[in-house]
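Anyone have tokens for SCP2 domain-containing protein? Sequence:
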Amino acid sequence: MSSFDIDPKTISTEEFRALLSRADTLEGLDDVDPAVFARLIGRARRDQLEAVMSSPARTVVLDQILRRFTEHYRAGEKRPPKVIHWKVTGRPDGGQDEFELVLHGDRCEVNTVAEHGADTTIILGGPEFLLLTSGNGRPTTMFMTGKLKVRGDLGLAAVLAKIFVVPTAA
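Reply: yep, here.
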């Protein structure tokens, strides 16, 4: 049994944060099936998600999610690129993590530094980012409650779930 098969509801917030903090040195998130990760995030309590995203584990988790954007992209015909900037707030130092996705149609490029002007900018907190990218968050609800903000092309933001294969809990 993998440590990622644990039910977060049965462990403390500190144990949950430690589980994801160790992910880069133990079995690693590289080997965790996206559906298992989605289930882990979906069953976690809000305080557990906040603890992870306000700790050094945030870097490990964000790096893995960014890497997987390219794997989960639904490639289509080559077309002019669309650029989505992401701003994930609530970093431990009070700042935010920023990155961009460049959607070329036939491929997705992830840049940890913005290199292009944005068609759309999505701003959300760390827990909301985890919920959204793991298929456990409702983007419309997040938007309507102000937990997710969109600047620029709202239509592009609205179709992200169709552009990416969003993992579902196993």
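The first strand starts at residue 82 and ends at 89.
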